[in-house]
Amino acid sequence: FSMPLFSACRRPKPVALKGSDVVKQQVEIAQLAGASGILDSSEQILKDLVNLYAIKSEHPYWLVEAVHAHTDKAVTDVCGATASGSRPKEQNTELRKLMQQIRDNAQGVPKVPTRRNGVAYLMLVKEGDVATLPRLLGTLYRPQDSFWIHFDANMSPKTVAEIKGNAIMKQPNVQSEQVLAGCWACPSLAWVKMLGLVRLLQSGTGWSHVMTISSNLFPTRPLNEFYDMLSEHPQTMFMYNRKLDTVNGRHNHMWEQRHDNGHDMLCHLGPRTVESLVAAPKSMWKSSQWDILPWAAARWLVLESPVIDQMEFWNSTAIPDEHMVPTLLGNSPWQQAGWKYHWPLTKVNWKPHGDIKSPPSPDEFSIKDFDELRSARTFFARKISDPTLLSALESINPLHPLVSAA
User: Fold this and answer.
1) Its topology with respect to the membrane (predicted)?
2) 50 burial class (0-12, 13-18, 19+ CB within 10 angstroms)?
């Protein structure tokens, strides 16, 4: 999804912080602030610096405090005066009602699927990643599977209409909606996932696992092997879930999704208030949003987890798409009940951090990576848009007749 927007004013050059000693790091960031003229320059530059480091760092609390100590200022809203057309507090009213209605009628959702021969796919699509969607659907499509596709609310109606014109989008087991606007690290991404889980649980009971994917993912091995692996691990969550430091971390600060001039962004509001911690989870966990969950886990998240009570907490948390589901599961009875975690099944080509303004992100695979992808112990890869590589991979899993490769 789109990157958060920051002011166009001059920013300091990135400086690599070395050493593990906190005091040394505090001194270095203080020197960085001073050398960049932040102490005597624009307050917005200081706020940008704190926001950028807080988003990138796993444990940024010391960094924020170090800057505060040298400025005697509190970090407030780094986004300035913005509109609030897509604030989660307003967007999630209907989602809260929907999830409560589902819970009130929980008897309609069995604890175990009636059939296990299908897979559910929860797809997130944004404007820049639509070219490969028909080919991806054509590769994955089986009548016994369930598909729920969310088009980002910022996508143009023309683009969405063109995609929906594909024959495969009109199949009865393919649903699509355009509800929430997403941005990098914003709460709406987490709620889109919860909405998708609701829809897929409602759609039928013929799937054993649900896989969250983007439209620039593509299978790299025969899908029959993937289906066999899922059937052999009916109670396995395919996600790398790890517990975080609950004292330090960006989750100890409050954030808000805002909308301005056609873009959504994440705004830093400052340290958490006591009120925002009322429904906070006991411990924080982290994984990728691109996971594979068994039916029982998806059902628990929607029907039994404390997600509704924690809605305001997650609305003020940075990058909840990588924290909310992992944290709910990490604090669930399953964490102590022998439920298994497994490494993710998708290969990602992570590129170096580069400029401090750019968070780490997946690089594109190309045809030169074909042999590496085929030999990897994974079933999927992202990001892939190279037409030559896509054609080579389609030789492994041919397109469904409903879709043309053209």
Assistant:
1) Single-pass type II membrane protein
2) buried
- Among residues 137, 133, 118, which one has the least CA distance to residue 203? 118
Helices (H), 124-222: 133-140, 157-164, 187-203
Q: Give the torsion sign (CA, 47, 272, 85, 212).
A: positive
Torsions phi, psi for 122 (to 5 deg): -110, 105
Phi-psi region of 72 (alpha: psi -120 to 50; beta: other; left: phi over 0): left
CA distance 141 to 394: 13
> Which residues of the chain carry a pLDDT beneath 70?
1-92, 107, 183-185, 245-251, 254-255, 258-266, 268-270, 273-278, 334-341, 352-360, 404-406
For the chain, which domains are there? 1-75 (no CATH), 88-243+285-394 (3.90.550)
CA torsion sign for 362, 364, 369, 370 is positive
At residue 321, what are phi and psi to the nearest 5 degrees? Answer: -65, -25
The single-letter code of the amino acid at 197 is L
The alpha-carbon radius of gyration of the chain (Å, integer) is 22
Phi, psi values for residue 207, rounded to 5°: -125, 150
- Residue 252's SS3 state is helix
The predicted model scores a pTM of: 0.75
pLDDT value for 349: 85
SS3 call for 362: strand
pLDDT at position 235 is: 83
Which SS3 state, helix, strand or coil, does residue 266 take?
strand
Amino acid at 348: V
**What's the rounded Cα separation, in Å, for the pair 313 and 87?**
14
Place of tokens 């790091």: 25
Q: What is the pLDDT of residue 114?
A: 79
Nearest to 298 by CA among 122, 123, 92: 122
User: How many CB atoms within 10 Å of residue 167?
Assistant: 13
